[in-house]
Design a protein that fits this description.
With 778 residues, the chain is α+β, with helices and mostly antiparallel strands. It has four domains: 2-9 and 611-776, Glutaredoxin, CATH 3.40.30; 23-267, DD-peptidase/beta-lactamase superfamily (Beta-lactamase), CATH 3.40.710.10; 291-297 and 304-410 and 525-574, no CATH class; 432-520, no CATH class. A hairpin with a 2-residue loop joins strand 11 and strand 12 (389-390).
Length: 778
């Protein structure tokens, strides 16, 4: 095990990323991919195994959740603290997810597959109620004498053909009547399935760019061992495809990784569907409609550039960005806003060879539905203009009752008169949210970001923006003692999860164990409020009236389908809306890259969806590190080198088992790293990449030697000298006691880890000076 030491964080939200599987692993798994509308099998392997009853494992948590909500055993607001383990009928039931410091909501419990939560629910759940839900899904009843807590967790369940589980999942997500749930209850179920595919046990789907609803299961296999199961449907907003996969000798997360590979390959290979919307209203004719080039990141690097007609593109944005069941007027208002953003920012990714990306960095794209197509047809060619050019516009999931101006979100942005602060009663100050963050966790996050001091004693609001949001916070007990609310929200979001601080419109107070935050809204709050537009449409406002409310002074102009509106260039900081699904602030590129190598890299790079826009820059950092290290070491690039950036600190910690202060781990030819944004925030991106590249290059030679040799070599080739305190006046290295393997593998604290790594560097440099050959250092 090798670690790059950096100021990392302890994460409270979990996103799993399984190690890459070989093609043989896929071939040994039984799987089937189907078209959900027709039930037609699109592709399959060993599908006959999926008709044989198998233990569903934690999939049972899904019908248990539906039954518990329907019978009011729990509500959407029921929180249960996960203690890590519980005892049921003399059997110890443990959770496999990392410790979570806050009490779990039901959707989080489903996403994380929390056994303690569902065992607790099972104690209160009626067997008859759960059997009724199972029957409605076409699944067999529960084992008659099995304790309900074990049934609800999936530890005791009736064997079921896996294909039936995919049919059941399809019914749950496509039929609003399943379980007779109200809107809020159904949202819990869907959010839990979405969370599973983003930060939970099925997180491999998000890692591979597939926006899915998914659930995994792990159970004992016949004859011994384990078998992993996953069922998933996608795209999440309006599923059209589904997959079920069963893998012997694997866990549910392994199955999810294999299924995500298959799903992402099918998605990448599928050609974009032709637009089915009616033709645009009559306007001066042109040879063809304007088009946009959208770059989809390929799993192995590079981009799959697809061309969409503008109106088809807008329909896809509505599927990705609009609130569920939006009225027609709200969809039309968002269509005009999204179209305006597209034409005003065409060429934003010009250096990568396309116009826009399909991620939150630009606008999220999904398969369009009939309502979105209709809204696009009703507004075809319409854009918002300012001074006769497309305006720079934004939209947010929910403004929380008051909009924000751009400069208070993105420093240096302009504040045009049509983006002024205004109160929005239609938003109804929703969503109202609250969360408690343990004091030690928050202190650790801030220290990882560079804050120092005796310890965080209090967090106080220091100043406000004109909209009433928090501008700056006072950190009592740390130095420096102030941080902007936007930076604070980003640090907490990237480290502990975005669900904790949803906006900067909050209050904070000290509790006995930490800090209690309570606020309104979701996202940055600039421009059109998606939730507010829905409220206005429900009260009878037209699309034009909605847009006049959010963008006063802008005019709607209709361009002919073959003409391209004039695009006004704008500063990059002012053209990045945050999508409702992921309220992350715009991120700067990792490092400038003069050009992209014409040949594909001799390694594979895996990035979280939120970092795909920086792929070219990250490739440049890795390429430079490989060139420098291989040249200095006299070695070639390792075969099958795989560089994996995790989507969250929790994912990295869970996958590698590393301590919170670790930033990366190299094992063989695979490098696991914290998210790019986390490394950038700490100013250690380049250094961490170089350190791990050095491990990968030197590892085949130094494997089996003391850890101080391996770490010292990595630091040498990464350009990390020993601490100055260990260097004599003449430049020679002081004689020191070399750290043991235990000192480096299991340091008691970050400070002791830094000391051990410094000693390793000194020992290696002293030995190298004596031998002159790094391969002979022992």
């Amino acid at each position: 095990m090798r670690r790059a030491l950096a100021a990392a964080v302890v994460a409270g939200a979990v996103l799993s990323l399984q190690a890459a599987q070989s093609p043989d692993d896929v071939s040994r798994a039984a799987w089937q991919q189907v078209d959900l509308a027709s039930g037609r099998v699109l592709d399959a392997s060993l599908a006959d195994r999926l008709a044989v009853p198998a233990a569903p494992g934690s999939f049972m948590k899904l019908p248990a959740l539906i039954a518990a909500l329907a019978s009011r055993v729990i509500t959407p607001d029921t929180r249960i603290t996960c203690t890590g383990e519980t005892t049921v009928a003399g059997q110890i039931v443990r959770c496999s997810h990392p410790p979570v410091r806050h009490a779990l909501r039901p959707e989080e419990a489903l996403a994380l597959s929390c056994n303690v939560y569902f065992a607790t629910v099972g104690e209160r759940l009626s067997r008859a109620r759960l059997d009724g839900v199972l029957a409605s899904l076409g699944l067999p009843p529960t084992p008659a004498r099995a304790p309900m807590p074990l049934v609800a967790t999936g530890l005791r369940a009736t064997p079921t053909p896996p294909v039936a589980l995919l049919t059941a999942l399809s019914r749950i997500v496509r039929d609003d009547r399943v379980g007779s749930l109200d809107t809020a209850e159904r949202r819990v179920v869907i959010d839990g399935l979405r969370g599973s595919a983003v930060y939970g046990t099925s997180g491999a789907f998000a890692m591979r760019g597939v926006e899915a609803l998914a659930k995994t299961g792990t159970a004992d296999a016949p004859g011994g061992g384990e078998q992993g199961l996953v069922v998933a449907v996608w795209p999440a907003a309006s599923p059209t495809r589904g997959i079920v996969l069963l893998a012997q000798g694997a866990a549910g997360m392994d199955a999810a990784d294999l299924a995500a590979r298959i799903a992402s390959g099918a998605t990448a290979a599928r050609a974009p569907s032709a637009p089915s919307a009616p033709s645009a209203p009559s306007a001066p004719s042109a040879p063809s409609a304007p088009v946009l080039r959208v770059g989809y990141a390929k799993p192995g690097g590079g981009y799959d550039v697809r061309t969409f007609a503008l109106e088809d593109y807008v329909a896809r944005v509505l599927a990705g960005e609009a609130a569920a069941r939006s009225p027609a007027a709200a969809l039309e208002a968002l269509a005009i806003t999204a179209r305006t953003f597209a034409v005003a920012n065409r060429g934003r990714h010009q250096r990568d060879g396309f116009d826009l990306c399909p991620l939150t960095h630009c606008q999220v794209l999904r398969e369009p539905d009939a309502a979105g197509r209709a809204a696009v047809a009703a507004t075809a060619g319409q854009v918002l203009t300012w001074e006769d050019a497309p305006a720079q516009v934004f939209y947010t999931a929910s403004c929380g009752g008051t909009s924000e101006r751009p400069s208070d979100v993105w420093a240096g942005s302009q504040d045009p008169p049509y983006l002024r602060i205004h109160h929005d009663s239609a938003c109804k100050r929703e969503p109202h949210w609250a969360s408690e963050i343990p004091g030690p966790d928050l202190d650790r996050v801030l220290r990882a970001a560079g804050f120092r001091g005796r310890g965080l004693r209090d967090v106080r609001r220091q100043s406000h923006t004109p909209s009433g949001r928090v501008r700056d916070l006072h950190l009592v007990g740390l130095a420096p003692d102030a941080i902007s609310a936007q930076d604070f929200r980003n640090l907490v979001g990237r480290s502990l999860g975005w669900q904790l601080i949803k906006s900067t419109n909050f209050t904070v107070r000290r509790t006995g164990s930490g800090f209690y935050f309570e606020g309104h809204g979701f996202g940055h709050g600039v421009g059109l409020c998606v939730l507010g537009s829905v409220g206005r449409a429900e009260h009878g406002d037209s699309a034009k009236k909605i847009l006049d409310s959010y963008f006063p002074g802008l005019k709607i102009r209709t361009f002919a389908t073959g003409s391209a509106p004039i695009t006004r260039n704008a500063p990059a900081a002012s053209i990045a809306p945050v999508a409702p699904a992921a309220p992350a602030a715009p991120a700067a590129p990792v490092a400038p890259v003069a050009s992209v190598a014409p040949n594909p890299p001799a390694y594979s790079l895996v990035l979280p969806p939120t970092a795909e826009a920086d792929r070219a820059a990250i490739l440049g950092v890795i390429d430079r590190a490989l060139a420098d290290v291989t040249r200095a070491a006299g070695r070639s690039t390792p075969a099958d080198l795989r560089v994996v950036f995790h989507p969250s600190a929790a994912s990295f910690q869970r996958e590698t088992g590393e301590s919170w202060w670790s930033a990366a781990r190299t094992r063989g030819s695979r490098i696991d790293l914290l998210p790019p944004d986390v490394l950038r925030d700490r100013g250690t991106f380049d250094a961490t990449v170089r350190h791990e590249i050095a491990h990968a290059v030197t590892g085949p030679v130094l494997d089996g030697r003391p850890m101080w040799v391996q770490e010292g070599a990595a630091m040498h080739f990464a350009g990390e000298p020993p601490p100055q305190s260990l260097v004599e006046a003449d430049g020679s290295i002081r004689r020191v006691t070399c750290p043991s393997d235990l000192d480096l593998r299991q340091p008691a604290s970050a400070a002791m880890a830094r000391q051990a790594y410094g000693l390793a560097a000194a020992c290696f440099e002293r030995a190298l000076a004596g031998t002159g050959d790094w391969t002979r250092v022992k």
